[in-house]
Design brief:
The chain is an alpha/beta fold. It folds into two domains: about 180 residues, Alpha/Beta hydrolase fold, catalytic domain (Rossmann fold, 3-Layer(aba) Sandwich), CATH 3.40.50.1820; about 90 residues, no CATH class. Helices cover about 40% and strands about 10% of the residues. The chain contains 13 helices and seven strands. Strands 1-3-2-4-5-6-7 form a seven-stranded mixed beta sheet. Helix 2 packs across helix 3.
């Protein structure tokens, strides 16, 4: 999808899981009204023409190259970048490893090194580790279809676009949606993001996390119960950066000290905004949504566009 006039400042938008590129349509219209040209596509594993069948094809280094290749194909050597959820993690990777990004805005996800410190290691944040217990469940083999297709029915199917992915209704949709879960495998395989230790069902029950306790009882413990470290840190980001998060986000807890540590990874101008919203920062209430959209525009417009 593209929105805006020819010659407008280019902005690339990366969606997360289980959302699709259409999540950005209202933002794209807003940015277009400001003279910017924004692009959003369904990423690897979502588009039927870009959905390899091997989990190793979703390594984050490959996904990073996808972003750069698309920008090149569209004729943009440099561009601004916005990412949400796993698109946010990928965005940190692209923005810290490529000189082609002029500014970066992460929606919901702190700097990936700060996030990883919250997930794994001596300074891990227990509350965030508990909130991220689904990570290892998503990474299990055939995670979309095992245990009665739970994650497929709960997340993938309800994201609303898999019927467009299939050319016939008879095709086995869970096998297609499985590819969307492989972002988590790709991030772990590339060592870009840590994975939290797995809490037992008993531990989760004692913490009052009854839904996660039930899920752990069904899915069992993963092969790496102690979690996985981040082996390839992104390091400092040397471009103007913004981090926007929702105060009622139950998946990524942006009010925790580890999340505020994002500022220490940014060497240039840094903007931070917390809004009264949940995880989906494209679906906030009107006033809060304007704050989100306006800060994204502010980050881009003040970053320099020569």
């Amino acid at each position: 999808m593209v929105e805006g006039t020819d010659g407008g400042i280019p902005v690339f938008l990366l969606h997360g899981f289980p959302e699709w590129s259409h999540m950005y349509v209202p933002l794209m219209k807003f940015l277009g009204s400001k003279g910017l040209t924004s692009y959003a596509c369904n990423q690897r594993g979502y588009s039927p023409t870009a959905a390899p069948d091997d989990v190793t094809d979703y390594n984050y280094d490959l996904l990073k190259e996808d972003v750069l290749a698309i920008a090149t194909e569209l004729g943009h050597e440099v561009f601004h970048l916005v990412g949400h959820d796993h698109g946010g993690v990928l965005g940190w990777t692209v923005a810290t490893e490529s000189s082609r990004v002029k500014s970066y805005t992460s929606l919901s996800v702190p700097h990936v090194d700060a996030f990883s410190d919250g997930l794994y290691g001596p300074n891990a944040d227990k509350s965030q580790q508990i909130a991220s217990q689904y990570f290892d469940m998503f990474r299990m083999k055939n995670s979309a279809s095992i245990h009665g297709y739970f994650w497929y029915l709960a997340l993938a199917l309800t994201s609303g676009r898999w019927e467009e992915y299939d050319d016939t209704l008879e095709k086995y949709r869970p096998s297609n949606s499985q590819k969307a879960f492989w972002w988590y495998n790709g991030a772990a395989e590339a060592g870009k993001m840590a994975m939290p230790r797995a809490f037992t069902a008993s531990e989760l029950f004692k913490e009052g996390q009854y839904a996660f306790a039930a899920l752990r009882g069904v899915y069992g413990m993963p092969d790496e119960p102690n979690g996985l470290p981040q082996t390839h840190k992104s390091g400092k980001i040397e471009i103007p950066t913004a981090f926007i998060c929702g105060s009622s986000d139950t998946a990524i807890l942006c009010d925790r000290p580890y999340a505020y540590n994002t500022k220490n990874f940014v060497t240039e101008d840094y903007l931070h905004l917390v809004v009264d919203c949940g995880h989906d920062l494209m679906a906030c209430k009107d006033e809060e949504q304007y704050k989100v959209n306006d800060l994204i525009y502010q980050r881009i417009s003040t970053a320099g566009n020569n």
